[in-house]
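Task card 7
Instruction: Convert sequence to structure tokens.
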Amino acid sequence: MASMSSPSTSSQHSTSSQHSTSSPNRHAMPPAPTPLAALALIGQARGVLADARQSTDAGERFSLAHLSALRGAAAVLAERGRPAAARRRLVSVWLLLDVVAPELAEWARFFASGASVRAAVEAGALHAVTARSADDQVRAADTFLELVELTLGLLAAPMAS
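Output:
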């Protein structure tokens, strides 16, 4: 709480008395619109996640859920940009997400750990995934996409009844 009060205290001292009596939100800039690429990636992620839910094959369910999360992470990168140091070389989306969205770092580590499983499934490993782990991946991808949508400002606040 102390850190939140410090900026407002210092801003009162640095502004004229005419501005210090005005509403603090009067001069606030509206949030920038989310880039179309990010919106398209979120739409794709939701579509792939729906396909994952419909699949009866555990490996396919796992892979599709992981792909859905990848698209969600790509949406964050599309909105926030890619770090300059990573523009010239191939870098995992999960490593980039850790840099540009530290609030999603734990999720980045979680999905990065599933990349080898997804690769094994896509290479034909029939028993790389159990039904339970596939279901867990679908639930995790759904939660992650909700957090991405919240991060991008795409979720509306619930209406009061």
